[in-house]
């Protein structure tokens, strides 16, 4: 059983920064990609950023230039550095891992961490 544990959410003022982390626990597995999604109240869950096992990254237009996704391959940990936060970044942020090899086709989700940006 694989579980993803997120940390780093909180309440900040506009313009401030937060760093989210996500690490797996449980049985080891091969990872194809890691990503961060978010869901604001009344909105659908959307991709924020992802990174594949080759190191290529992809960002939503709304966060380009402000957010950076990074990984620690050895620890299978993914990070999301969020700078210049805006009120519209307020959401529950979820990490997502897509499996590779014997785990291809499987996806794992964290339980989410709340980010609130408000003055």
Please tell me about this protein's structure.
Strands 2, 4, 5, 6, 9, 10 and 11 form a 7-stranded mixed sheet that branches. Strands 1-3-8-7 form a 4-stranded antiparallel sheet, with no helix packed on it. With 119 residues, it is mainly β. Strand 7 and strand 8 form a beta hairpin. Helices cover 0% and strands 55% of the residues. The model has no long low-confidence stretch (mean pLDDT 94). The chain has strands at residues 2-7, 10-12, 18-26, 31-39, 46-52, 57-59, 67-72, 77-82, 91-99, 107-109, 113-117. The chain starts with a strand and ends with a strand. The radius of gyration is 14 Å and the shape is globular. The protein has no helices and 11 strands.
Question: Which SSEs are present, and which pair or pack?
Answer:
Layout: E1 2-7, E2 10-12, E3 18-26, E4 31-39, E5 46-52, E6 57-59, E7 67-72, E8 77-82, E9 91-99, E10 107-109, E11 113-117
Parallel strand pairs: 2-11
Antiparallel strand pairs: 1-3, 3-8, 4-5, 4-9, 5-6, 7-8, 9-10, 9-11
Global structural class: mainly beta
Report the end-to-end length measured between terminal Cα atoms.
40 Å
Question: In this structure, how is the largest beta sheet organized?
Answer: 7 strands, mixed
Radius of gyration, Cα only, in angstroms? 14 Å
Number-wise, the strands total: 11
Strand fraction band?
over 45%
Helix proportion:
under 10%
Mean pLDDT across the residues is 94
Order of helices and strands: EEEEEEEEEEE
Q: Compute the number of helices.
A: 0
General form: globular
Uncertain spans: none
Task: Name some characteristics of this structure.
mainly beta; 7-stranded mixed β-sheet; 119 residues; 4-stranded antiparallel β-sheet; single chain
